[in-house]
Amino acid sequence: MRTYNSTLILRRLLSPKKLSYGYRRLTSLFGNPLVDDSDNLVLVEGKGRARTAILNRPASLNALNTSTIARLQKLYKNWEENPDIGFVVLKGGGRAFSAGGDIVSLYNLIKQGNLEDCKKFFWTIYSFIYFLGTYLKPHVALLNGITMGGGAGISIPGTFRVATDKTIFATPETLIGFHPDAGASFYLSHLPGYLGEYLALTGEKLNGADMVSCGLATHFSLLSKLPLVEEQLGNLITDDPSVVETSLANHGDTVHPDQASVIHRIKKVDKCFSHDTVEEIIDSLENEAAKTNDAWCLSTLKKLKEAAPLSLKVSLRSIREGRFQTLDQCLVREYRMSLQGVSGQITGDFCEGVRAKLVDKDFKPKWDPPSLEHVSQDMVDRYFTPLSAFEPELHLPTKQREAFT
Predict the structure, then answer these.
(1) Known catalytic residue at 173
(2) Which pLDDT tens digit goes with each residue over 82-98?
(3) Domain residue extents for the chain
(4) Where is each Enoyl-CoA hydratase/isomerase domain found (predicted)?
(5) How would CATH label the architecture of 16-392?
(6) Is 181 a catalytic residue?
C-alpha cells in the first residue's frame, strides 16, 4: 500500500510527457478546464526562484470555483516543469486564505438542474489536490485568516503550512448537510487520537496555535511578522525543502495552545469519539456531561445536534475509512460521496443546509432524515458505492505521479 508523509510527501522526478495522460483524460470528460481567461482570479508574484500564487476573490473570502482551481492547476503545472523555479508559495488576498468551495454557486447550479458543472468542480479541485500532494517542488501555504473546507484541501497536502495568530481552521460541512471533503478524510484521519472525528463531526474551529500543535500546520508566524517571512522566502535561491524549512523556522514564532483549547482535552476527545457509531459518541458525551457538568461536553453535544444526522453518519465512516487509505484513494471515494451529496437522490440536505445558512439565513434547516434513528444503513452505504457504468470515476494519474509504489 502506498503511504504518505503528512508533513513532507516524497518528491519524485518524472518527465513532463508522463504527466500528460491525467490531464488529457480530464479534458476528454469535461472539455478543457485548464483553459481559462479569468487570470485575475489568481495573481502571480515572482522573486528569485520563488513564485507566489495569490487567491484573488477577497469579497467572497477567496471561495474556490472551477475557474480558480483550473488557473492554479495551469500555473502549478508550468512551474513544476520550469527548472528556473525552485519552490511555490500560495496565499490569499484580503483577510482570508480561503473559506472553501463556493457552495452558494454549487447551490445555484443544482437549483438550475446543472449537475454537470457541479461534477466538473469536484473533478477539478480533487485533481488539483492530488497534484499538490505529489508536487515535485517545495510548497509553502501561508494560512492567514479563514482556512476552511476546500481552502484546507488546497494547502494541507503541500510541504509547509504557516499558520498565524489570525488563522481560523474548520471543516464545517456537516452543518450544511455535506461531508468533510477535498482530502479531509485523509488528513483528519491522521491527526492524533480521534481529534479528526471530533473536527469532522462538530465542525469546530481551531486557531493557528492549535493547528501547529496537532500537525495541521508546520510553522507559525505572528501576522505582524508575516511580511518578513515572505521577504526572506523571496530571497532564497533554492529548490531544497530543508533550506525553505530553515528559513520558515528562523523567522517564525513559537506558540502553544491556550488552556481552553481542545488540544488539552485529547484524552476526553479520545474517550468520547472512539466509539463505533454516532449514537455511541453522543451517549458517551451525555454521560460525561451528566457526571461532571462539563461545559465542553455540553457545547459539543449542541454542535452535533445542529448537524445533519445523515451527514454525521456518512462523515464518521469517511474518516474511519480514510485512516486506512492513501490520499488518492480518499479523493476517489470523496468524489463518489460528493456526487451523491449534490445529486439529491438520497437527500436534499446539502441544498437545505446552504439555503438555511447562507441563502435565506434563517438558520433553521429541515434535515431529511430528521434524526439519527431515521438514517438507514442503506442511505449511508449508497454514499460509498462505486459510480455506475454511465458515470466516470475520478481518474488520478497515480502511475505517472508516483514512480515508486
Answers:
(1) yes
(2) 999 999 999 999 999 99
(3) 16-392
(4) 51-384
(5) Alpha-Beta Complex (3.90)
(6) yes
